[in-house]
Structure formats: structure tokens, C-alpha cells
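General statements about sequence and structure are easier to judge against a single worked case. When preparing material for the folding task, we compiled for one chain both its residues and its C-alpha cells. The amino acid sequence and the C-alpha cells for this protein are reproduced below:
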Amino acid sequence: MTIKERILATLKGEPTDALPFVPRLDIWYNANSRNGTLPAPYRHATLKEITDDLELGYHAIIPDFKDFINPEDGDLDVGIGIYHLKNHPYRLKLHNVRRTHQWTGDGILKVRYETPKGDITTTVVHNKEMKKNGITLYVIREHAIKSPQDYAAMAYIFENMEVIPDYSNYSQFQQEYIGDRGVAVALSAMWASPGHYLIKELMAFDTYYYEQYDNPEEMDAFIQQITPFCQKLFDAAINSPAEIILSGANYDASFTAPAMYEEYILPALRQQSEIAHSKGKFIATHTDGENTGLLELYKRSGFDLADSICPAPMTKISLEDTRRIFDGTCTIWGGIPSISVLEDSMDDVTFQRFIDQKFENLGRGDHLILSVADTVPPAAKFERILYLQKKAREFGPVMPSL
């Protein structure tokens, strides 16, 4: 089987010839390539060349957040959670808003949006240290919505943000770059719903919960105003040639509390999953945080792929317990905590004992695409990635009960 065939068969609960192992290596590669510390045989190789040579598969769920359509100004809207990426299944065009920007200090970007309803300002950071560590995602230092007075201006911005379905770059990425190396997941948005968008990108953590308590009607009215924009993003993604659509990312019980998830996220993911299934497609969401209290809600959401499940000892829930709760209703992509591949966290004997025990507890191994969660860290010991690959190959074939 090809790696793509293994992934899709796993999602369908069908047999595979081996346990799929598709680690996310982009941050590891970016950091080591920049610092000249790639393993000797691959010192001048591209990431695709490395994964091809090792037959690892190419992880194509989370996009490269620096692969802009236009490198000159593609990052101007990241403060409102908008990345103008080359391989998106859509393009976004802002109308009737004056946008100005200024770079200051070490990778600090300040942006002002002037609208008839008021002005919005954001500040984001992508500095030298982040680049050194292979990080491509910006950090928001100043959020767009700071008080209820900002709702009208933000709503105006989204009402004037045109969503243009465009599958040319995505199709080329899917067919020519990824091919059978993996599955080219199409990103709908890094938030799963308009309510999730608020806490994920637009508001600081404390602002969100103060607003939920102090101004719930105003906040819900704003959510309704931006719903059409969010729906257009999903429509563009679900109608693309992609087999899997990524909707939402970065849940954690500490800020996407179960009650918040149930009210603002679950209904959207359930509806998106129903639409996807009617088209023979799958919905993935990036569940990389502390999932205590959330796993049963994930099951009720109906999505197909929990990407980047990070188990104990980095979180409170073991891989075994996560698989037991999901009970074949959702495929896990992940399962190996990133600290296990770091020498300063586990010595070689402890690592092998830990991994061997995990494999002994996998049962049939169905509905699992093995990966290091959330991502392979820059300081990972390369030999441990190869050991994980060896164990995955030896585990197969995977024969779920059909």
C-alpha cells in the first residue's frame, strides 16, 4: 500500500499492511536546516527528499504558515487570524478598509485597520529566536478585540472580506508535491466555529471570559455577524478536491473548557462532519492540548480525525484511555509524546521500554496513524524516529474488526 492508501484506509476502518507512521517533521527540519544540524546523510536535503528516502510519508495537515501567496504582504492579516497561504483552497480580498502596517524591533508587526465603524489595531511577533527554532506560526501580542467597542469595526472587516474559492495551487500541491506520500489536507480555518474564532485569534483569554460574563448578548450578536464569513471559508474547503478538511486547532481544557466547547464548537463540527460525510470526505481537527473532559465531546462532534493527540506523561490522559473512549469512532493521528524523543527527558533504555510498552497496548492498532505529538522537536534524537518507524512496520498488518 502507498502511504496515502494506508491513511485513508485507517480513517475508513479498513485493513492496512502496516501501522501508518507519518511524523510531523517541518519544525524539526526548519530548525536543523537553518542551524546546519541535520543528520549527516541529509545535510543538504529537502524535507521531501528526507521523507522519501526514509519512506516516512509527508505530514501535510498543518500548513507552512510562512508559505504566503505574496511574501511581501502575506502576513499583514495574521493578527486577525488570517494567513494568505499559497496552498489554501481560497483567496481572501479585503475591500473598503484602509490597512496600514509598520515593522518594529525584532520581527514585530503592527497593523491598523481603519473602518467607518472605528479602528482595529493588532501586533504580532515572529522574531529571530522563533525562526531559529523552526517556528512559522506568529504569536499575537495585541489582540484585535479589546472591548465591546471593537465588535462593530471587526464585523465590518469580515463583512468586507471577500472569499474567492481557488483550487489551482492546492491541486498542484495535492497531486504533484504530496501525491501518494500522504494526504494533502485542506485548511478551512484554524478555528472550528465563529465562537472558537474569538478565543483562538481575536481576543485575549481573559477578555473572552470577561465578555462572556459581562456582555454575552453583544458577544453572541458579533458571533452571528461573522458566521457568514466563516461559513464561506468552510464551503470553499469542502468543495475543493481534498479528501480531508482541517477545521479548528489547539484545544485545551484550560481555555476551551468543556462547557465552552459544547456550546460554541461542538454544533459546528457536527454539522461540518455531516456535510463532509455526505460528500464522501473526512473532517479533521487539531486536538493537541490537555483533553481532560473533552474526549466524550469530541465523540459527539462526529469528526473523523483527532490530529496530534498528545498523551501522558505530557497530558493527564494516556493513549490507551483515549483509544478506549473513542472506541473506533475517531482516528487518532499522534500518540507519541514529543518529550520521549528528547535525550534530556528519557535515556535510550527508558525510551525503548516506554515505546515497546505502548506498542504492546495497541490491541488491533485500528484507527491509529502514529506520529509524534504535537510535532517532532528540533532537538529530537534522529535514531528514535527511526526506531518508531521500525516498530510501526513490524506491527502490521492492521486488521480491524469489520
Observations:
- The chain has one domain: 3-90+165-395.
- The longest strand covers residues 108-115.
